[in-house]
Amino acid sequence: MIADVTRSLGTDYYVLDELFTDEERGVRDRVREFADREVIPVINGYWEKAEMPLELLPRLVDLGIVGGTIEGYGCPGLSNVALGLASIELSRGDGSLNTLFGVHSGLAMGTIFMCGSEEQRQRWLPAMARMEKMGAFGLTEAKHGSDSVMLETAARREGDGYVLSGEKRWIGAGTFADVVVVWARDVEDGEVKAFVVEKNDDGSYPDGYEAQPIHGKMGKKAVWQADIKLTDVRVPAENKLANANSFEDTFKVLTVTRAGVAWEAVGHAVACYEAALQYAKERVQFGKPIASFQLIQSKLANMLAEITAMQLICFRLGRLEQAGKMTGGMASLAKMNNARKARQICADARDIMGGNGVLLEYHVTRHLSDMEIVYTYEGTDIIQSLVIGHEITGIDAFV
Question: Which whole-number Å values give the CA distances from 314 to 85, 164, 337, in the listed order?
Answer without folding.
Answer: 9, 38, 11
